[in-house]
Specification:
Largest sheet: none
Strand content: under 5%
Number of strands: 0
Distance between the termini: 21 Å
Radius of gyration: 20 Å
Low-confidence stretches: none
Number of helices: 3
Structural class: mainly alpha
Mean pLDDT: 83
Order of helices and strands: HHH
Length: 88
């Protein structure tokens, strides 16, 4: 049964996101250096911007990992009741 609270109670695979960020970080650093050495400043700048985005994402992922697990109801907890009032 869907309750409508799924976006607020959703969980994320933080370790998987972390390792995908590491992979992205390696490739964006490589791309930035490779394009800078071959004389393509536009592509080097694009990779540098992606490098910044990946770094910020990795920082947020690490922050969430350090916060530790939050309470998540297990399979023995019944789902929340849907709201009685529907707003148009």
């Amino acid at each position: 049964m869907r309750t409508g609270s799924e976006p607020t109670t959703a969980r994320s695979a933080l370790r998987t996101r972390f390792w995908l960020s590491v992979w992205g970080l390696v490739w964006t650093i490589f791309g930035t250096v490779a394009f800078a050495l071959t004389g393509r400043p536009g592509w080097a700048a694009a990779c540098a911007v992606l490098w910044l985005v990946v770094t910020v994402d990795m920082t947020m992922i690490l922050r969430h990992m350090r916060q530790g697990p939050h309470y998540q109801p297990g399979p023995d907890v019944p789902p929340y009741r849907p709201p009685e009032h529907r707003h148009p």
